[in-house]
């Protein structure tokens, strides 16, 4: 596995947690936390989670393997035979929806998977200052990814923002909640707050928006046109006086030859 996989696996500590063992079933089977079939386990971000895999009804010592998604979890000696325990510490939002699977090494079709349902709030906090020129578009973007999915609301100066269709555009996915002001005006100055609420709690982020005066547009096309006119005037002036210039040069060389 790459560095990212090693970072994740580093959080899976090889301890012997106090986890309940499962009851027996007919034949050689596995159970994880007393579950003989795949199951979903709820957890909260930042918590510690223990998983215990047990071989049942075996007639010989069996070696066990653990996987996180497609990556192997390294197990210490003494934590592989018949019973194997892992601790995930801490549980993070990146673990949400991830399957931890215990397998029988001798027959890897014998396995039990645990899919984590991690509850977490969006990584949303702090403040951000934005500067925009008058009549230009500006976008305020906040991370709204959470589990359970939260409800996102925009406020301006602590009041619910009235989203006028011709002035504002809102874009929302399960990960992002953003507000675009199509043509910023001086009246748009203020503090905008992105608030995400869920049953698990709420998070917010403030955006301090400052709308600057519109900068004067430099008349580039007019300057180019004027330069072309000046250049043509000079060229035509030279052509009109070419005979006089030629006579002056001719006289100059004649005088020089007489001397």
Question: How would you briefly describe this protein structure?
Answer:
The protein is built from three helices and 17 strands.
Descriptive tags:
259 residues, alpha+beta, Immunoglobulin-like, five-stranded mixed sheet, 17 strands, 17% helix, elongated, membrane, Ig-like_dom
Write the layout of secondary structure elements.
Layout: H1 3-9, E1 12-13, E2 29-32, E3 39-44, E4 49-56, E5 64-68, E6 71-73, E7 83-88, E8 99-104, E9 111-119, E10 127-133, E11 138-143, E12 151-156, E13 159-160, E14 168-172, E15 176-181, E16 190-198, E17 201-212, H2 220-240, H3 242-258
Structural summary, described in words:
- With 259 residues, this protein is an alpha+beta fold.
- Helix content is 17%, strand content 39%.
- It folds into 2 domains: 3-119, Immunoglobulins (Immunoglobulin-like); 127-212, Immunoglobulin-like.
- It has helices spanning 3-9, 220-240, 242-258, and strands at residues 12-13, 29-32, 39-44, 49-56, 64-68, 71-73, 83-88, 99-104, 111-119, 127-133, 138-143, 151-156, 159-160, 168-172, 176-181, 190-198, 201-212.
């Amino acid at each position: 596995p790459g560095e990212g996989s090693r970072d994740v696996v580093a959080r899976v500590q090889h301890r012997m947690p106090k986890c309940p063992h499962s009851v027996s079933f007919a034949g050689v089977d596995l159970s994880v936390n007393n579950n003989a079939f795949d199951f979903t386990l709820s957890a909260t971000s930042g918590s510690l989670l223990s998983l215990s895999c047990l071989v049942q009804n075996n007639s010989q010592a069996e070696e066990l393997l653990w996987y996180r998604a497609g990556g192997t979890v390294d197990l210490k000696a003494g934590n592989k035979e018949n019973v194997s325990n892992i601790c995930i510490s801490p549980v993070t939002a990146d673990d949400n929806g991830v399957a931890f699977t215990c397998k029988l090494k001798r027959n890897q079709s014998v396995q039990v998977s645990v899919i984590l349902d991690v509850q977490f709030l969006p990584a949303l906090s702090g403040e951000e200052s934005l500067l925009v020129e008058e009549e230009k578009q500006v976008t305020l973007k906040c991370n709204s990814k959470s589990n359970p999915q939260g409800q996102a609301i925009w406020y301006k100066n602590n009041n619910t923002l009235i989203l006028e269709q011709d002035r504002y555009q809102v874009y929302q996915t399960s990960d992002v909640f953003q507000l675009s002001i199509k043509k910023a005006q001086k009246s748009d100055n203020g503090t905008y707050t992105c608030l995400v609420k869920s049953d698990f709690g709420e998070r917010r982020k403030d955006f301090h928006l400052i709308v600057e005066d519109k900068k004067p547009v430099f008349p580039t096309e007019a300057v180019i046109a004027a330069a072309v006119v000046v250049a043509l005037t000079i060229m035509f002036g030279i052509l009109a006086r070419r005979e006089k210039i030629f006579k002056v040069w001719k006289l100059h060389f004649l005088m020089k030859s007489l001397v």
